[in-house]
TrEMBL record:
<protein>
    <recommendedName>
        <fullName>DoxX family protein</fullName>
    </recommendedName>
</protein>
<feature type="signal peptide">
    <location>
        <begin position="1"/>
        <end position="22"/>
    </location>
</feature>
<keyword id="KW-0732">Signal</keyword>
Length: 121
């Protein structure tokens, strides 16, 4: 069984997120901050492509260190989308508010996980 800090688990998480962006882009379009130029769909597909590239980089030992650092930066970079989701849910159901607010602190362990994978590479 792989360890929780396993680079292959991180790569799997990233690849799963990439597939989700392609399979159900509408859910992700709604999280794109309006202040970004271009269409939300373009940002959704671009972030999915970035996640796929990061997954490949983290999975490969030769590129793992740099890809894991880039993954940590990516997790920081998508945090505004999570904030937007929480703000948009403020008038929603109590469940939607709880889920979106609960996601915010989860970015911290994701960033720390990616940094650990980088250090261990």
């Amino acid at each position: 069984m792989p360890r929780a800090s396993s680079p292959l688990l991180l790569a799997g998480l990233l690849a799963t997120a990439a597939v989700a962006h392609a399979a159900a882009p509408g859910k992700f379009d709604a999280t794109v901050p309006r202040s970004l130029p271009g269409s939300p769909r373009a940002w959704t597909y671009a972030s999915g492509a970035a996640e796929l590239a990061l997954a490949v980089g983290v999975a490969h030992p030769r590129t793992r260190r740099v890809a894991a650092l880039a993954t940590a930066a990516f997790f920081v970079g998508v945090f505004p989308a999570n904030v937007k989701m929480a703000v948009d849910a403020r008038h929603g159901s109590p469940r939607a508010r709880a889920v979106t607010l609960g996601r915010l602190p989860l970015q911290v362990p994701l960033v720390l996980w990616a940094r650990k994978v980088s250090r261990d590479a």
